[in-house]
Automatic annotation (TrEMBL):
Domain named Aminotransferase class I/classII large: residues: 20-321
Keyword Plastid appears in the UniProt entry: no
Cofactor(s) the record lists: pyridoxal 5'-phosphate
Family: Belongs to the class-II pyridoxal-phosphate-dependent aminotransferase family.
The EC number(s) this enzyme carries: 2.6.1.9
PANTHER family (UniProt xref): HISTIDINOL-PHOSPHATE AMINOTRANSFERASE (PTHR42885:SF2), HISTIDINOL-PHOSPHATE AMINOTRANSFERASE-RELATED (PTHR42885)
Name listed for the protein in its UniProt record: Histidinol-phosphate aminotransferase
Length: 327
């Protein structure tokens, strides 16, 4: 329960379609993939909606890879990227490995980010790239639409909106803003709501002008024929794969209630994980949970842990183990 994966693997309803797509792809395994990934980009554009065309989609092996392509292209020595912590640690890591200077500003005590705080940080640091999370990892906090609006008007740099968990939110993707804000880049993934973490498909959504230069940094044929074929089949069955979302959200509510009634403070989460205050030394609690076979994530701030919503029986095991180790 430490990786924010879906607890639901592909099952009988769509597994046959995924297997047939993989088998068909293997019959052309001697050939390199379509370097344009045109079928996948078109299918992703249809899935995204909001008038997004295939030339506005850049797929890769997970959203971390496409974010790396973005920072290789637009970051680098002499450039800066700003994020608001606590937040997804790979944003900093991807910035750092591309030689981009990382600047971190703070969220408020409820892990929110006000328009004023975001504007002040941008005014102070004048970053080339600003990272926002539609639903923040590790806290689950939704992004205030007014904050996004302020950031989009605040500076000349790129604004990366990480929508990794967007399918879990009632608000939905902000891809409709792309036609008005050419500096906006949205990152999405099939790792979470689609339950495809092991397949590795993520994608950027942005104007063709922003995306075309990424072809220079991406290695040739970076996404395999097999990955693209299975992703296409999954997009064909998106409704069935995404039907697990309400089940996960109901379990999130149940876990949240149980944590609150045991006296824990739980951050508001619109995602498939919860961030809660153990009221104790979180690394000791995480270690004791691990001793009982339950893995959670200890990312700080001190005292807080992140737990992914699992199957109902896994969630029961977690709740019981937590009660035992924090007793
Ligand atoms: N963004 C956020 C906010 C995430 O939490 C994650 C996964 N933990 C990712 C991006 C990367 O996901 P992937 O590379 O599997 O698409």
């Amino acid at each position: 329960m430490n990786n924010n994966e879906s607890p639901c693997p592909p099952d009988g309803r769509h597994l046959d379609a995924l297997c047939s797509a993989a088998a068909k792809a293997l019959t052309t395994a001697n050939r390199y993939p379509d370097s344009d990934l045109s079928a996948l980009r078109s299918a992703l554009a249809r899935y995204i909606g909001h008038g997004v065309g295939a030339d506005m989609v850049w797929p890769g092996n997970g959203s971390n890879e496409v974010l790396l392509h973005l920072l290789q292209t637009y970051g680098g020595p002499g450039r800066t990227a700003l994020g608001f912590g606590p937040t997804y640690s790979m944003h900093e890591q991807i910035a750092t490995v591309t030689g981009t200077r990382w600047i971190q500003a703070d969220r408020d005590s409820h892990f929110g980010l006000s328009p004023e705080a975001a504007a002040a940080a941008i005014e102070r640091d004048r970053p080339d790239i600003v990272f926002l999370c539609a639903l923040n990892n590790p806290t689950g906090t939704p992004l205030d639409p007014a904050t996004l609006d302020t950031v989009l008007h605040a500076g000349p740099g790129l604004v990366v909106l990480d929508e990794a968990y967007i399918e879990f939110s009632a608000v939905g993707s902000r891809a409709g803003l792309l036609s008005r804000y050419p500096q906006l880049v949205i990152s999405r993934t099939m790792s979470k709501a689609f339950g495809f973490a092991g397949i590795r498909v993520g994608f950027l959504v942005a104007s063709a002008d922003v995306l075309t230069p990424l072809r220079i940094v991406a290695l040739p044929y970076h996404l395999s024929t097999l990955t693209a074929a299975v992703a296409l089949a999954a997009l064909d069955h998106a409704d069935e794969l995404l039907a697990n979302i309400p089940v996960i959200l109901a379990e999130r509510g149940r876990m949240r209630d149980a944590l609150v009634s045991s006296g824990h403070t739980v951050a508001r989460s619109d995602a498939n994980f919860l961030f809660f205050d153990t009221g104790a030394d979180s690394s000791a609690v995480a270690a004791r949970l691990a001793g009982r076979g339950v893995l959670v994530r200890d990312l700080g701030p001190g005292g807080w842990l992140r737990v992914t919503v699992g199957h109902p029986d896994e969630n029961d095991v977690f709740l019981k183990a937590l009660a035992d180790v924090t007793r």
